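> call design_seq(struct)
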């Protein structure tokens, strides 16, 4: 059983090569031509027959001995962030793998190599899913619509996300069962007023005033309308009104996200966001329109898969698995970030696992999505070993 971990460690250098290539060539969104090409070619070299699917790549492995299929997922897209990590292999094209998806792709390529070597021992089918557009929450959905969970039908699925800037470097962090990440709803509030001269505000309907009032009014959702035990976040990250000091603009807008857990509170907040925006705007003689731009459901961690994972990892990496409930005293049992793997977890039993890739004590101080974020590459082989062992053992037992 220890063998998989040792074998993974032996291909660490290859994964570092993948990672640095991907890191230097970050692509964003749904269309990742260079990345897809790279992944496809690497899989071809290993003897796979990769197929394009919904902007991503799918490959299968195994002997199909029984009917079960286990899916392993990696995302491949970067962020529109100008890199300031200081790494010698920093990206120069204005995008950055600041969410570690270069790690996920490299780890799954490493896993693909290990699986090929042990193909005759796979008791079923393992499907590898390399997806685009996680950051805009349309990648997994697009691949599901293109049939990634069909033919052969997927019975269970798993993903890993790396996290720099946390203690316990190199450990797996097993998130809660039930909601493990947040529902995300991205919205835009368009406010329409009447513009005019800054010296004659009574002749205008000032959208800046309206945006300010909507922003403040929305804070009441946290303070007064949702039960204190319920966790949710509403953030306005963008507000744009006007271009200069002495002109009242015609219109303005705000964009933000809602992060929530469970369906009920999610529906309630979305409804109140619309009501509050519209009625506050009306109060000041303006009009507001709320547009939901994109969304993804929370990842629901399957309890059995979660327990299986912890048991399987004990077979290959003793003392290397932390239960978030235990380690972070409940505070990190679920994340407030979102993961479009939630769409997969709506369809099949699924598991999202964290892997710490660099601790503050060793200088990895910045979190995901930070332009200065750095990641400890020593986590690569661990991710590859975990993907491989999880899929093979699950098929053995199911
Ligand atoms: Zn991200
Ligand atoms: Zn991510």
């Amino acid at each position: 059983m220890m063998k998989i971990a040792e074998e993974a460690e032996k291909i660490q250098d290859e994964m570092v090569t993948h990672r640095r290539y991907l890191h230097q060539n970050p692509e964003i969104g749904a269309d990742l031509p260079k990345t897809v090409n790279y992944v496809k070619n690497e899989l071809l070299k290993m003897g796979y027959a990769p197929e394009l699917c919904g902007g991503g790549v799918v490959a299968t492995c195994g002997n199909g001995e029984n009917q079960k299929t286990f899916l392993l997922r990696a995302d491949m897209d970067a962020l529109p962030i100008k890199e300031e990590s200081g790494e010698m292999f920093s990206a120069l094209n204005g995008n950055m793998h600041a969410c570690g998806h270069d790690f996920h792709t490299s780890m799954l390529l490493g896993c693909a190599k290990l699986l090929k070597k042990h193909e005759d021992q796979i008791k079923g089918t393992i499907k590898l899913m390399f997806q685009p557009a996680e950051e805009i929450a349309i990648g997994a959905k697009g691949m599901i619509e293109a049939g990634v969970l069909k033919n052969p039908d997927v019975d269970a699925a798993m993903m890993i996300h790396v996290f720099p800037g946390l203690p316990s470097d190199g450990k797996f962090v097993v998130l809660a069962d039930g909601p493990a990440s947040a529902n995300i709803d991205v919205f835009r509030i368009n406010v329409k007023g009447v513009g005019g001269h800054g010296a004659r505000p009574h002749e205008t309907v000032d959208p800046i005033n309206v945006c300010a009032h909507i922003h403040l009014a929305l804070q009441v959702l946290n303070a007064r309308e949702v039960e204190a035990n319920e966790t949710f976040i509403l953030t306005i990250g963008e507000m744009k009104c006007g271009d200069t000091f002495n002109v009242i603009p015609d219109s303005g807008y705000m964009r933000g996200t809602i992060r929530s857990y469970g369906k009920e509170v999610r529906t309630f907040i979305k409804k109140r966001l619309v009501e509050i925006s519209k009625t506050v705007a009306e109060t000041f003689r303006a009009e507001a329109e709320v547009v939901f731009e994109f969304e993804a459901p929370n990842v629901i961690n399957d309890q059995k898969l979660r327990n299986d994972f912890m048991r399987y990892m004990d077979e290959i990496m003793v003392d290397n698995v932390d239960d978030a409930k235990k380690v972070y005293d409940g505070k990190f049992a679920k994340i407030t970030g979102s993961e479009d793997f939630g769409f997969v977890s709506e369809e099949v039993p699924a598991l999202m696992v964290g892997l710490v890739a660099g601790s503050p004590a060793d200088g990895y101080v910045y979190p995901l999505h930070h332009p200065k974020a750095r990641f400890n590459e020593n986590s690569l082989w661990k991710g590859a070993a975990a993907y491989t062992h999880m899929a093979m053992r699950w098929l053995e037992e199911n």
